[in-house]
Amino acid sequence: MSIEYRITLDSDHELSYCIEPNRTYEPIAAKTAPNWTRLEYQQCSNCPLSKDNFSHCPAAVDLHRVIEDFQGLPAFKKVQVWVRTPEREYSKQVSLEEGLRALLGVIMATSACPILGTLKPMAQNHLPFASNQEFILRAVSLYLARQYFNFREGRHADWELKGLVRMFQQLQLVNQAFWQRIHDTCEGDSNLKAFLTFFSMSSSMTYSMETQLQKIRPLVMSAGEGAD
User: Fold this and answer.
1) Averaged confidence pLDDT in the chain
2) How many angstroms separate the CA atoms of 207 and 13, rounded?
3) 180: Cα separation from own chain's centroid
4) Predicted confidence (pLDDT) at residue 125 exceeds the cutoff of 60
5) Given phi > 0 = left and psi -120 to 50 = alpha, else beta, which region is 174?
6) pLDDT of the residue at 154
7) String of DSSP letters for 18-67
8) Terminal CA-CA length for the chain
9) Between residues 190 and 120, the one the model is more confident about
């Protein structure tokens, strides 16, 4: 079940990536990765990994090829992005920033990082070019589905979404650390802007959950339901 990305910069330049959602950390591959991917380089403040078992950050190792491929390119450059998931294909002309946000997001969510791994259910139903509203709807829906199964199977169910807020607070710390990793190594602005956009979407879930929920309320409430 791979996810394929093809980004066409112009008639002579096309870059392709194949993401395997269930990949694991490979120490041998990590040894050839650049210095900024080392675990202790701008390590996330909430990172649970030990340098005894992980010499490099799993997510950074997975990302470094993409970061290097697009280093120095302007974020506003128009590109054609084609994506194939096991279920369907997508194709859209977007800014390089938007295309990279989608690609970087799915790579991070399927990495061996235990914190980013909380986004794996979303990656397994990957929706490239998702709007902020779609991102919120999918995150909340998947979280509530998990709570339903917890309830059915006799475990505590968090219907108030407190755990979802905590999850995105942890992800926000990871995003901030990755911003610094990328900032230290990038010459251009495309990678930085892609991370900034991804960071903004994630952080919106931590400081204004109720506001975000009100944005998706019209999408899930049929006419007449919940009327005052």
Assistant:
1) 87
2) 40
3) 16
4) yes
5) alpha
6) 97
7) EE-TT----HHHHHTS-GGGBTTTT--TT----TTT-SB-HHHHHHHHHH
8) 46
9) 120
Count other Cβ atoms within 10 Å, centred on residue 134.
Answer: 14
SS3 83: strand
What are the phi and psi torsion angles at 75 (to 5°)? -65, -30
Token representation of residue 114: 């235990």
Every domain of the chain and the residues it spans: 3-217
Question: Which pLDDT score, from 0 to 100, does residue 28 have?
Answer: 85
DSSP code for 127: -
Helix segments in the chain, DSSP class H:
27-31, 58-69, 96-109, 120-124, 132-152, 162-185, 190-207, 209-220
The pair of three-digit structure tokens given for residue 108, joined into one six-digit string: 């991070």
For residue 195, what pLDDT is reported? 66
